[in-house]
Amino acid sequence: MASEKQEKIDEQLRPLYAELQKHGQTQDWDRALKVTKKILGVSSNEKKATQCKIICLMQLDKFDEALTTIVKNTADTADLIFERAYCEYRLNRIEDAFNTLKSVERELDEREQELFAQVLFKLEKYAECVESYRSLLKNNEDEYQSTRQANFIAALATWKLIDPSAKIKIESNDLSDETYDTTYNSACVLLTSGQYVEAESKLRKADAQCRRELEEEGDMAEDEISRETANIRVQLAYCLQQQDKNVEALTLYNDVLKSKPTDLAVIAVASNNLAVLNRDQNLFDSRKRIKTASAPETEPKLNAFQKKVVQVNEALLAIYTGQ
Q1: I need a surface site. Which of 21, 119, 247, 267 has the fewest CB within 10 A?
Q2: Any coiled-coil ranges, and where (predicted)?
Q3: Any residues with CB less than 8 A from the CB of 51 and at least 6 apart, and which?
C-alpha cells in the first residue's frame, strides 16, 4: 500500500522535475521557482527541490527568503555552506557569514575561499584579507584573475590607509594596470603612501580606461558613464586636494555630485571633502555636506576609518558654528 502511494507520488514528480530541469537550463528562475513549490507541494521532503528552490531565490536576489529556507530545512541544506554564507553576506550579516565559513571543518573550496576573502574585507581584517587574495592569485589562473587582482589591491590600499604604520610588503607585481579596476586600486595604494603625482597619473589612466571600455559597449549615455566613473574622479579630486590644487579639486567634486552617483560611499566622501575644502568659510554649505556624509543610510557603506574622519569633521564644524 505504501509503495503504491509512493509510485503515485513519483509519477507526479517525474514531469515536474523534467520541467524544472528545462527552466534551469534556460535560467528562467521565476518559472523554476514555481515548479519547486509544486514539487514540494506534492512531497515536502524532496531535498533536491528544496535546494533548487534556494538557488532560484538567490538568482532572483531574494536572499532573505533563501536564508529562511536554508535555516528551516537544516537536514536538506547542511551541505549548502557557500549558499548560506553568501545569503548572510548579501544581507549584510557579515559576522554570521564569517562564522558560517569558519565552522567548516574541511578545507574551503574555491568559491568559499573567494567569499571568505570578501567577508574579511568587510570585517576590516585587511592583513588576513590580503593573504587570502595572495593565495587565491597564486593558486588560480582563470578568467576571474583580474577581478581577484583588483580586490587584492583594494585590500592593500585600505590596509595602508587604516594603518599607515603597518609594515606591508608590496611585491613588484602587486600593482597592475591591466584593467581600470586594477589601475584605480593601484592608484589608491600610491595615494595612501603619499605618492600623489604618481597616483594622479594612474587615476587619470583609470578614468580613460573605464570610459573607453564603457564607450566600446556602445549603449551608455555620457551621464551614465559619468556615474560609473564617479569613484575614480572622487579619488582624483582628493589627490589634487592633497597637492593644494584646490580649485580643480572643488570643480571635480561638484561635477561628481551633479552626476548623481548611485554609490552612497562616493557621495559621502565627496561631500565630506567639500566641507574640508570650505574650511571655516561657507559654513551653511559645509553643514549640508556633512549631513549628507553622516546620513544613517550611508554608514554601512563606509569603513571605520572613513566614519571616524566624517565624525571629526562634524565635530570641527560644530566648533566653527558655536554648537
Answers
A1: 247
A2: 94-150, 196-231
A3: 76, 77, 80
pLDDT of residue 241: 92
Compute the average pLDDT of residues 68-74.
94
Given a cut of 70, is residue 207 above it in pLDDT? yes
140, 158 contact by CB (below 8 A): no
- 172: pLDDT strictly greater than 60: no
Is pLDDT at 279 greater than 70 in this prediction? yes
CA–CA separation, 272 vs 114, rounded Å?
Answer: 32
Distance between alpha carbon 299 and the CA centroid of its chain, in Å?
15
Which grid coordinates are listed for 309? Answer: 574622519
Cell of 236: 582624483
Q: Is 270 exposed, middle or buried (0-12, 13-18, 19+ CB in 10 A)?
A: buried
What architecture is the 34-101 domain classified under in CATH?
Alpha Horseshoe (1.25)
Helices 47-59 and 29-42 pack at an angle, to 10 degrees, of: 150
Q: Collapse the DSSP code of 302 into the 3-class scheme (helix H, G, I; strand E, B; otherwise coil) and give the result.
A: coil
Residue burial 20-45, b: 16+ Cβ < 10 Å; e: rest? beebbeeeebeebbbbbeebbeeeee
Q: CA–CA separation, 99 vs 44, rounded Å?
A: 29
* Cell, residue 43: 512531497
Whether 162 and 127 have beta carbons less than 8 Å apart is answered as: no
The pLDDT assigned to 173 comes to 62
Domain boundaries, the chain: 34-101
pLDDT digits (tens, 9 = 90+) for 90-124: 999 999 999 999 999 899 999 999 999 999 999 99
- pLDDT above 70 for 1: no
pLDDT at 32: 95
